[in-house]
Structures are given as C-alpha cells and as structure tokens.
Amino acid sequence: MINQAVWMYDCFSLSLREVELILAARGVVVSNETIREWGLRFGHTYANSLKRRGPKPGDKWFLDEVFIRIRGKLRYLWRAVDQHGSVLDVLVQGRRHTTAAKRFFRKLLKGLCYVPRVLVTDKLRSYGAAKREILLSIEHRQSRNLNNRCEVSHQPARRRERHMRQFKSCRHAQRFLATHTPIHNNFQLRYHRLSAGEYRAARDHAFSIWRDATGVALAG
C-alpha cells in the first residue's frame, strides 16, 4: 500500500486527501499526514531507482526555465529534457543569471555523468555564458521556437503547482519535483502516438520497471 500511495500521488494530479479517500475505498485506513510521510521517506528512493533502471537519456538536451511563485516571491524552475521528451533534471533557484545557469549545468553533468551532443536553449544570455565555461566544445543552438519541447514539459509541474495551491518553499518545490519527475517520466506513455497493443505493452513495461524499483507489484 505504501508503494501504491506514492505511485498515485506522484503519477497523477491527486492531493494527499484524495489519495487517502482512494485507499479508504480499498479498505486501507491511513491519514493524509501518513501518506505525506510515506512520500518523503520512500519517494526519493523510488525516483533514484527508476533513474538507474531507465534507458540512457538522449544526447540532445533542451533547457528552459519558468517562473513559479512561492510565498509571493518569484522563483525560477530550471528544467532539462532530451529529444525523446524525458525530463533529465530540475532545479529551483531564485535567479536566472550566469551563476544560476552554471549551477544547473553542473547538477546535470554530475547526475547524468556524460555530456550532450547538442544543447538547445532560448536566447537567455546566461546559457551562452555558462556554456562557454563548462561545455565549450558542445554545439549550442539558441532560438525562441526550437525550445518548445522543453516548454511543454513544464505542464505537469504547472498542474501540480495549481493543485497544491503553490509550493510552500523552494525546498518543498525542489524535493517534490525531484521525486515527481522520474516517476512521471516512467508512466508518461504518449498513448496518442501508440496503437492499443503498443500502449498495453508500454504500460506493462512501465509497471515492471516500477515493480523492480519498489520491490512490490502495484495492486489491481
């Protein structure tokens, strides 16, 4: 049930109380605070396990940043995705200057342990300045329209931000999104591009990866 609760909370736009009601309908009586503690205790472990078991990300990275409002102050959510639409990493920061861009680049490189072939960003000058210091030999493409893939990838985080009535702090946003992103990646099947048989096969494969990551199969 712990695996089921963490999966529902991070994979779908459900609140803690909604997950509590779904579990109650199945005869499991737990409070929303218990579910929150489960997410904090096990969610990050599951997310890291999914990263290790997932396929190697692509070599073309799309980077973008959007503002989020935390306690009335503007903060920036930096995000990187590959050419397949899988989110590589996220980082919540207070600024979007060169230092912030370099911090995000270093976090990406440390987590993925390889460099991309192509880097695609918008025309924010911070990207170019950081790239010249950290990824000098990498091809860099800057355009307002080339980066649409990364801009679209912000939608799941936006939905959760609205559903949670904004994040409570930068730490809260970073902790939640760092867990939510790998789990959502695993079950983002793009069913509109698949036949019924292909979708069922992809769904079963996603569940098998989750079972390997958690050690327990999802209940039907």
Short description:
With 220 residues, the protein is of the alpha/beta class.
Features:
220 residues; 9 helices; five-stranded mixed beta sheet; alpha/beta
Structural account:
By secondary structure, the chain is α/β, with parallel strands linked by helices. The chain contains 9 helices and 5 strands. A 5-stranded mixed beta sheet has the order 3-2-1-4-5, with helices on both faces. The longest helix has 22 residues, at 32-53. The chain starts with a helix and ends in a 6-residue tail after the last helix. The model has no long low-confidence stretch (mean pLDDT 84).
Q: Given the structure, what is the number of helices?
A: 9
Helix/strand class: alpha/beta
The end-to-end distance, rounded to whole angstroms, is 11 Å
Total strands: the figure is: 5
Topology:
Blueprint: H1 2-11, H2 16-25, H3 32-53, E1 60-70, E2 73-82, E3 87-93, H4 98-112, E4 118-121, H5 125-134, E5 139-142, H6 148-152, H7 155-163, H8 170-186, H9 196-214
Helix pairs in contact: 1-3, 2-3, 3-8, 3-9, 4-5
